[in-house]
Protein 1
Amino acid sequence: MIPFRFIHTADLHLDSKFTGMKGLSDTLRQHLRDSTFTALRHLMTLAIEKQVDFMVISGDIYDAADSSLRAHLSLQDAFEELGRHGIHIYLIHGNHDPLDGPRLQIKNAEHVHVFGAEIESYIARRRGDQQEVAVISGISYPTSKVTENTAMKFQRDPESHLFHIAIHHANVDGDPGHETYSPCTRKQLEASGYDYWALGHIHQRRVIQESPHIVYAGNIQGRSVKETGPKGCYVVDVLEDSSLHMNFHELDSVRWFREEISIEGIHNEDEWRIRVEDKVDAIRRLRPEEMSIVRWIMTGRSSLHRELEKGHVVSELEQELRRRELARAESGHFGGLVWSESISLQSGIEIDRNDMMREDSFLGEMIRLEVQAEQDDALAKELVEKALAPLMSNREIRRIIGEYSEQERQEWLYRAGELGAVLLLDKAADGGRN
Ligand SMILES: [Mn+2]
């Protein structure tokens, strides 16, 4: 086999809006808006530095079907630059940027291959000597919702000895965190005879299996607290003996974190504030060149929880942490900037739940139910649904609730349990005094 090198990338989501972020200044909001474009620039630089033979992009290039002019022009520039280096691009459209979207067409260029709504195949060549190295097949989303199993349309050319790459935007094995578009199974992909499935749609990168390779590259820039950790692409080397080497490269310019901080052993606000500030500094040291966004999650049990539960203590620290970063941003420094997205409570009061569980009281009853729900997903789901039912008749609230995962909704249940415990204990204490 003739050795060659390519980049597998997906889900660029150019010009993502980063809505729902609180407290940002215009400068910071702009920096976030720029991040998907910065990641695109990193991608281009990497392709040229690594002298790849071609690049495959597995859908969701644009964030929205009616892509912005800026997204379109940036992509156009990027592709022209790759063209000057003789790097070909093979791309499909996904559920966010389907073919029927009101979109500007990419200028006709010989080195850009956009797949249509029916399966197509191209022969890819090596950049220098133009030797044929791979068959690349792909299919784009004609509309935003593709519910049929289009993976079944990929069939290896039995006559060809070239390396076979399939580009697909699909939900393999029904990942519950994403829409089940182009549903298919790992077994079906394996049976198709392709050597490398370059997948898009799931934003968390993952090598599902090797030889044949079935790979999600993940997105190139995290866009919410659900998309934490490094984001980037794979540089794939196919060697003479047809073995394969993959290297992940970070491309993101803003990175998301979920950091847990235990309040165990902390009994006053000052100690707590210092512990949070230490964590902020630790992330600053970790990423001195780039901006980070963090959701701080309080865990553990201590007497401090009561204070935090009052709300203003938490929001004051949130605002103070943000104020410092806003000052940094105004001076034009985004390196080492640590933005606190929010402080979220998963901590609890210092009670012995085992003791309380035996209590013949409303509180005891509530804790027994909570413990039961922790061990029984169906029960937890039922309790959450019952609690949310009165809100569901409002369309707007229903839409907002729909954006939260099952797990997040269950976290509300446990938060409600902790809040209930505080209120009931306070009431009991008051009752005692009267
Ligand atoms: Mn996507």
Protein 2
Amino acid sequence: MSKPNEVAVQRRWDWEYPIIARADGIYLWDTEGRRYIDGSGGSSVVTGIGHGVKEIPAAMAKQAEEYSFYPAHVFSNAKLLELADLMADIAPGDLRNNCKIWMTVTGSESTDDAARLARQYWVERGEVSKHIIISRWQAFHGDNIFSVSMSGLTTRRRMYTPMFRDMPKIPPAFCYRCPYEKTFPSCKLLCARALEDAICQAGPENVAAFIAEPVVGSALAAYAAPEGYFQIIREICDRYDVLLIVDEVMTALGRTGKMWGVEHWNVTPDIMAMSKSMTCGYYPVGAVLGRNSIWETLRQNDAHFRAGHTLNASAVGMAAAIETIKYIQNHDLVENARVVGGYFLEQLQGLLAYDTIGDVRGKGMMVGFEFVTDKRTKEPFLPQQQVSRLFSEITFRRGLVSYPCAGTVRGVAGDTILMAPPLITTREQIDEIMTILHASMQEFEAGLSRNS
Ligand SMILES: Cc1ncc(COP(=O)(O)O)c(C=O)c1O
């Protein structure tokens, strides 16, 4: 074990981090030889193709031997062009081969650049007042200052609010704790219609875009909007000339059992932000994919995109992404996520037998469950009890990495666990995960009754 509080600043001060030694498939080993299942796909929802896929480092090494870094203000690189073509070929709906792709390094940079693209598009069209990006509460779009401002994750944004100009947020599509206390479908999807109110209140002439995750990741632990939600959102965006940005940082490239999360609603966005699954953690790469007409507006004005960082579109990263996407396609991992993920969700229903589990949910290989003190009233645990963190520590001691989340209730209470093992996971491995989850639930509830 490494000692905490030494020179490298890690995520927690109070956790004795084991040192990771190696990883293969869905398993990780520490330097003491202990084996763990990568049940949340890293931290989190990253490792789609699993660990130790030799093709990826081989492609990266080959590229690095030819050249690693180059002056990108005067050169292009062949891998960048190849990757962009590959992604355009698999883009959803009418974006397919009708888009352009801008490379980034992280997910936060992708959502930030997606917002910038929306803003610059309207400026280039002469509609300079359009600058507001509407988003949702209980959403996460990243951790740099602008993306955290779009995020509706109270605990992560609150300290920084004096540093940004806040923009409107609408309630999440969260039927389990419906913000309007209604039931689907008789609710008529008020949560989607709230976008129209927000646009009109801000003035459509001021609104550039609306951003949402198709399946909410760390803020709601794999919660998918009901059928019809994104269709209404798309229609409202079109009516008021507002661009639809979909944050696919967690859901892209098969995670939810379709190539893109938004395809579950048969809706095509104008701009998509992505990152994690583009290289499944083998190298930091992200991207912003936008409708061709948006980028053409910039081009026609001879206006280059006002964004960009030194390490964008690194040739080594591009090589890793090409190989990763091909691996996902050649191994039919989207289908495996759909089928085995469906099995996972079925098995997860078994957790509802415990007194403290109020809901299980998910799509494909991205599932989650929520803790309550009372199933009927859905009363959450107190935030200071840190229930999701405690539970996640139990699974970790039992050899399963799970991802603790909180904030489903007004952004402060409401504990959940997000599970997103690699897309290669088999049914037998899901059974292995479920055995640990059941044992952990028993230990967790026994601990609660001892302390009550
Ligand atoms: C939906 C979503 N958007 C954006 C991000 C930010 O990505 P990154 O951590 O790579 O900056 C995340 C990270 O978890 C995310 O889940």
